[in-house]
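User: Structure please.
Assistant: Input sequence and predicted structure:
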Amino acid sequence: MEKNSKAKQLLQLFLTFFKIGAFTFGGGYAMISVIERETVDKRKWVTNQDILDMIVIAESTPGVIAVNSATFIGYKICGVLGGIVATFGAVLPSFLIITAISLFFSDFRENQYVNAAFKGVRCAVAVLILNAVSSLAKPMKKNAFTVMVAVAAFLAATFLDFDVIWLILVGGIIGIVLSAVKAAKAHKANAANNCDRAASDIGGASGEKEKHGASGEQARSDSDGEQTRSGEEENRGAVNEKDKSGGKKAEGEGADGGQNGGKV
């Protein structure tokens, strides 16, 4: 059962990327929106964040973005075999079409209908690329810094003929530096919070100690008072006993005197 399920997933990977490779014109950037629709919206294989990470990895590694993307998603779904199957499905249509065109290249080049069709395809490719830019920009964190970096990269690539490779490298360095600065600030804030918490704990412990000390003093004072009262009560008891003894003795002496008087 598990083998059948995996074989079905491999077949779906192959057919999905075969369709993407067969019906997408304009290169890897035009394929991004199609890949997102097929793998995120329809198949639920990956998320929008995975697509964004995939593009960053695909642009940062050698190779065509479409092939790298197929390898990334295939590996995520079915491991190494899934990466191979998805990659094969993505490149096979291009291989077959280019092979067929090479056999009749001169006829294709001079055919006015084919040239007109390619002009229309170029317009559609521009729309696909803009759609991909819009889709990828939505999950990104937007603030003044990231917007400035994006605008600067666009201006450099469009008007200064700046090599895209350097843009990628500079963007990666900026991202690393920014992450390091944020991590340092977070670490400093955590350290300050820990110091404040420790000071608060020490203050609380001192307060508890003073409280216990005051309670001990009160307890000792109460104990001394109890002892004093007990001593006073014992003294009063002793005095009362002595008075009683004196009274009994006086009564005895009186009785003895009476008896002696009778005898006389």
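Helices lie at 2-23, 28-42, 48-60, 65-103, 105-110, 112-137, 144-159, 164-263.
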